[in-house]
Amino acid sequence: MHHPSAPPGAHAPHDKDYLRRLLAERNQTPANAAGIDAAIEQAFVRNVAILVLDMCGFSRITQSHGIIHFLAMIHQMEQAARPAIRGNGGEIIKQEADNLFAVFNTPDQALEAALDTLRALQAMNTVLPPERILNVSAGIGFGPTLVIAQQDLFGPEMNCACKLGEDIAGANDILLTEAAHAGLPPGRYICDSTSYQISGMDLHAHRFGHCLFERPLNSPPPGATSPR
């Protein structure tokens, strides 16, 4: 059984080009699919918590103030979110339009990053004019995910986190998948169980309510380390 390996000095095994080579071989030699799938899983699949942040009000704000105004607001949102993500041990994978995607070792790290982002935005909003008020929604998933470093994410928990953060959550809402909620440490957070029907599927989720503890902004929770 054969699968391509990255030659010395070439792209690292987690690079997108390496994935393309594996997928091309899988399509050309279906008999080797099992071995190639194992190579892909070994190189790319990680058990991570996924945070999807979506900035609210795109259509309304661009209609009223134009796309450049909204792009400037996206930049401010990133200024709040990136330190919050890194400060809680997260790794930013990509940014698309007004969405930011990051991974963490644990769901509580992802949740704390979302909370720190909301708190930073709230502080910004106290000095911003009404037309520049910043609000985000967040979706959090947790489970085996194909991670292409600094490029992309694939997997069922990624899909669910996107649906929760982009399509369902309102301004300042944080929604967690069942797997992400189950991965939270007990006795630290209050969340309400809820369910939605979207894209022909029943999506069971949990809406963050409040913390049962307090910590200063940007002070990482115990054990916050970058995901491997």
Automatic annotation (TrEMBL):
A GO term, aspect molecular function: adenylate cyclase activity
InterPro entries: A/G_cyclase, Adenylyl/Guanylyl_Cyclase_3/4, Nucleotide_cyclase
PROSITE patterns in the cross-refs: GUANYLATE_CYCLASE_2
SMART domains given in the database record: CYCc
Domain Guanylate cyclase: 49-165
A matching Pfam family: Guanylate_cyc
BP GO terms, sorted: cyclic nucleotide biosynthetic process; intracellular signal transduction
Family matches, as CDD domains: CHD
Protein name, entry field: Adenylate cyclase
Native source species: Acidovorax kalamii
